[in-house]
Design a protein that fits this description.
- It is a single chain.
- By secondary structure, the chain is mainly α.
- It folds into three domains: 73 residues, no CATH class; 60 residues, no CATH class; 78 residues, no CATH class.
- 29% of the residues lie in helices and 6% in strands.
- The chain has twelve helices and eight strands.
- It has a two-stranded parallel ribbon with strand order 1-2. Strands 3-5 form a two-stranded antiparallel ribbon. The chain has a two-stranded antiparallel sheet with strand order 4-8.
- Strand 6 and strand 7 form a beta hairpin.
- It is flat, with a radius of gyration of 27 Å.
- The termini are far apart.
């Protein structure tokens, strides 16, 4: 009969303690790694490369891009930092790559990375967004018909245009007229802007309540499929069997006919100037 060695017996007897110790060591390693990679609330990034170029720091960028550098301290992306002493406080170069050759050439466009021309610089960090653009229904960024900067402001304030310190507010708003994320979408989707006599309340919460802006497996970039989306909010406690009451109206006959907005019922889900039932 096989006999356990003393070491095996000791491990078996102390297995729980060893498990707790190994788990604690793992968490400690993660904590130390996190603390070691964060400097003044900054995130480590690997900037794109420009062959033969060196980092020169964002102070040199200010020679030509004074306004951008001035406002960049308020930007979400200002917390980015590239590793290494040569890349300390790179700022602009975290996304645009080392800028020595660009500066020496007097601003040659082919010697710097421009995320406005290609989303690949953004995808280097935003891997989840890259995968969303691979879904069947997505905004045409990969096709080259849109860029990330059409919706996002990387140089000032919140990365989402239309935020309290975003560029869109300076153009359209002012004072207390703070714009929301909706303003991003409504720049292109003007037919949904309104105003409506009977507004769908979801519009007040934002487009992303119903839509995934980068990509979705559902048509129209919807977060849920078909009438399942509407039923997340428009549902009530059922008091009797054989019926589906929504707004005190039995919908058991209507729901199998198709989606709420394509079955001839609520064809204007954003709002209507005619009826509170959003039929047209």
């Amino acid at each position: 009969m096989w006999r356990k060695s003393k070491m095996t017996q000791w491990i078996y007897a102390h297995r729980l303690r060893l498990l707790w110790c190994s788990g604690g060591a793992y968490l400690l390693a993660i904590a130390l790694l996190s603390c070691g990679t964060l400097d003044s609330n900054r995130a480590i990034v690997a900037p794109p490369g420009v062959p033969g170029a060196q980092f020169i720091g964002m102070d040199k960028c200010a020679n030509c891009h004074e306004e951008v550098v001035r406002d960049f301290v308020t930007a979400t992306h200002a917390r980015l930092k590239a590793p290494g002493t040569n890349a300390t406080n790179t700022g602009c170069e975290s996304c645009h790559g080392p800028g020595s050759l660009h500066a020496q050439a007097g601003g040659a466009a082919n010697l710097i990375v421009n995320p406005r021309k290609s989303p690949q610089a953004c995808f280097a960090c935003h891997l989840d967004v890259r995968s969303q653009f691979q879904l069947p229904h997505h905004h045409p960024v990969l096709e080259g018909n849109m860029t990330c900067t059409d919706c996002h402001e990387p140089h000032k304030g919140k990365a989402m245009k239309g935020g309290p310190t975003g560029k869109a507010e300076r153009i359209r708003g002012g004072g207390m007229a703070f714009l929301t994320e909706n303003e991003n979408c409504l720049q292109c989707h003007t037919a949904q802007r309104g105003p409506y006599v009977f507004e769908h309340e979801a519009m007040r919460e934002g487009c992303t309540v119903c839509h995934r802006p980068h990509g979705s497996v559902n048509q129209r970039l919807l977060t849920e499929r078909n009438q399942t989306l509407c039923l997340k909010c428009h549902f009530e406690r059922q008091t009797s069997g054989g019926s589906i009451l929504i707004g005190n109206v039995d919908h058991s006959f209507f729901l199998p006919q198709g989606t709420c907005w394509s079955a001839g019922c609520h064809e204007e889900p954003h709002g209507s100037n005619v009826t509170p039932f959003l039929r047209y």
